[in-house]
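Minimal example, chain plus phosphoenolpyruvate.
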Amino acid sequence: MRTRRPFVGGNWKMNGDLAGGVELAETVSAGSREAVMAIDMVVFPAFPYLQSVGRALGHSGVALGAQDLSAEANGAFTGEVSAEMLLDLGVQWVLVGHSERRHVIGEREELVADKLRMALDSGLRAVLCVGETRAERLAGDAHEVVARQLRSALSSVDREEWDRLVIAYEPVWAIGTGVSATPADAREAHREIRSTLASLYDAELSETARVVYGGSLSPGNVTTIVAEPGVDGGLVGGASLRADDFLAIASAIARAA
Ligand code: PEP
């Protein structure tokens, strides 16, 4: 049975400028020599900075990721960025279905599924983000919402493709709010996700799939969350914009491994 290599991603969102992104990448690269031996580390800058940040990462072992991709291969899709374009820039990973794309931009589940298909067909590695809103949680629907998002996005994903796929459980109410899920909440959600994977695939896949937590992760709360069984690391937003915090989170995840 495959062991689960921990993962940490830094989602920079639409923040910073070119010089700041390059400096952040250089500092993260320099400080991550030990962590990259034990875990997959990825940063996700905005599209215009991908090439420069990729150069700054160099051969550090920290991988380059994009925050989104088009579901289309090429053509008349003004403003979109294709998987091939990302590969041209040295991108290895891509976020798919981030809650801001689902709930702010309005991406529907069918589009998320098409984007995931495009990413995997193109040879990219993908982080599929799932998670419930506060209203869905209060209504007692959290597990069903996440299961529905998984069923929809994974409908065409074969088990052979799972070595290029990470699931990020990101409760929408925890993203950017400073209020993370409790370790118990995270444990419960990850258990439910693995149970959905067992029903979609089988018990072995549910045990070997990588599932990480995202939502207000910080150096102060990461250790207890990643100590929970079934939590294989984190997707980090705000704290990934500060090199010291991101490196502290990565080290905590590497230690937990
Ligand atoms: C995210 O956007 O994926 C995220 C987890 O953000 P934050 O860490 O800021 O909550």
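The chain has one domain: 7-256. The pocket of phosphoenolpyruvate is lined by residues 11, 170, 175-176, 214-217, 235-239 (CB under 6 Å).
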